[in-house]
Protein: Hypoxanthine phosphoribosyltransferase
Amino acid sequence: MNNDIERVLYSEEMLGKRMDELATDLTKDYKDKRPIIISVLSGAVLFTVDMIERLDIMAQIDFIDVSSYFGGLGSTGKVKLIHDLKIDVKDRHVLIMEDIVDTGRTLKYLMDLLADRGAKSIKVCSLLNKPEGRKVDIEPDYVGFTVPKEFLVGYGLDYKGFYRNLPYVGILKPSVYQND
Ligand code: 5GP
Ligand code: MG
Ligand code: MG
Structure:
């Protein structure tokens, strides 16, 4: 698995340090809001788990699965709801946890959905942000790292469902997907 990585961008240690900083900000901003933290499956699960243990707040956790990539390299442009939330977001503060914002289409879809359902506030915390990929005008409120326009894997990010369990974020060798 490690042999398929061209370069490590963010080591486990770098990720941890940045998450400590993000958690300090989020703890301050959500102290008395009792938010619902919404983790976007499957990519944001590792990030969500490592973040919530750092948050010193009362919060509920829920999961939603929306997909536009279907495990490949490029976005299909369409977003589909695969698995819905269990908790009603009406009149609640919600914080969406994402792995990466690229075109912004997934986020746009989610924010519209939660706004329709009457959420009191909607903010987004994304581990990674790829502004050069943007197709819709939307920005995450909290960002771990701003990344170049490369295909990244690890720490939740997959290629065809694999590499999510790498403890770091790296660039996948093009030779891995050129043969597919
Ligand atoms: P968007 O809707 O913003 O284009 O894409 C969001 C989703 O696309 C992410 O949650 C992630 O699943 C996938 N994605 C975007 N860029 C990358 C990338 O560099 N690597 C991987 N593995 N997935 C990505
Ligand atoms: Mg994916
Ligand atoms: Mg995602």
User: Anything to note?
Assistant: The domain at 12-150 is CATH 3.40.50.2020 (Rossmann fold). DSSP finds four helices and nine strands in the chain. The longest helix spans residues 12-30. The first strand starts at residue 5 and ends at 10.
